[in-house]
């Protein structure tokens, strides 16, 4: 779980310089020359961005296909059973690593003035769902590998102080980062559960 926070401290002069440079760049970018060709104007900067984005999308799709194929293909899926208990333990610790951040997020939002009920209720539901998934994984591990010994090691969230800070900017920066990370990690958790279900039960493959 990558919960990375950074808190730059700008002086007034540096911030003004940064904004000025940004405005100058925007003006320059809007005036970038294009290459005239038959049928219109070709902008090399725009086209390079489009090309890079297309390649990144292809890379993402291929990497996703390879990841799934290794687990589902008969060539490699049979090897999964050799380390299924370790795999489940890793996933338990992964899901468990969210217990503390989500718990404190609920506390901080509950104490925040004028927080919308929609946001607070969503965070509470996310926290509860995460706890229930953790309990389900613990049960699955016992059923799949009764002799497995599990030592739960949930990492401490090093940026908790940002979330609990009295500084509004620090607090909201932590919230934004946390919401981004749980959105990313929830997709990973869902994929792992579906793969495990297929490999262990043979259903919904």
Automatic annotation (TrEMBL):
It is found in: Secreted. PANTHER family: PROLACTIN-8A6-RELATED (PTHR11417:SF69), SOMATOTROPIN,PROLACTIN (PTHR11417). GO terms for biological process: female pregnancy; mammary gland development; positive regulation of cell population proliferation; positive regulation of lactation; positive regulation of receptor signaling pathway via JAK-STAT; response to nutrient levels. GO terms for cellular component: extracellular space. It holds the Pfam family Hormone_1. Belongs to the somatotropin/prolactin family. Its main location: secreted. GO terms for molecular function: hormone activity; prolactin receptor binding. The gene is LOC110308274. InterPro entries: 4_helix_cytokine-like_core (IPR009079), Somatotropin/Prolactin (IPR001400). Transmembrane segments: none annotated. The keyword Glycoprotein applies. Keywords: Disulfide bond, Glycoprotein, Hormone, Secreted, Signal. This is Prolactin-8A6 isoform X3. Residues 1-30 form the signal peptide.
């Amino acid at each position: 779980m990558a919960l990375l926070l950074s808190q730059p401290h700008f002086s007034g002069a540096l911030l003004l310089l940064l904004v000025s440079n940004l405005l100058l760049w925007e003006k320059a970018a809007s005036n970038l020359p294009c290459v005239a060709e038959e049928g219109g104007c070709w902008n090399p900067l725009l086209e390079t961005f489009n090309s890079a984005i297309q390649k990144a999308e292809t890379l993402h799709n291929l990497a996703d296909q390879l990841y799934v194929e290794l687990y589902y293909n008969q060539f490699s899926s049979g090897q999964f059973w050799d380390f299924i208990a370790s795999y489940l333990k890793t996933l338990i610790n992964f899901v468990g690593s969210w217990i503390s951040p989500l718990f404190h997020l609920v506390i901080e939002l509950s104490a925040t003035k004028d927080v919308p009920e929609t946001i607070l209720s969503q965070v509470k539901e996310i926290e509860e769902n995460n706890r229930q998934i953790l309990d389900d994984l613990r049960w699955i591990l016992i059923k799949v590998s009764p002799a497995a010994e599990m030592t739960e090691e949930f990492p401490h969230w090093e940026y908790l102080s940002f979330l609990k800070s009295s500084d509004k900017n620090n607090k909201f920066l932590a919230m934004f980062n946390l919401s981004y990370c749980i959105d990313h990690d929830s997709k990973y958790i869902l994929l792992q559960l579906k793969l495990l279900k297929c490999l262990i039960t043979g259903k919904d493959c």
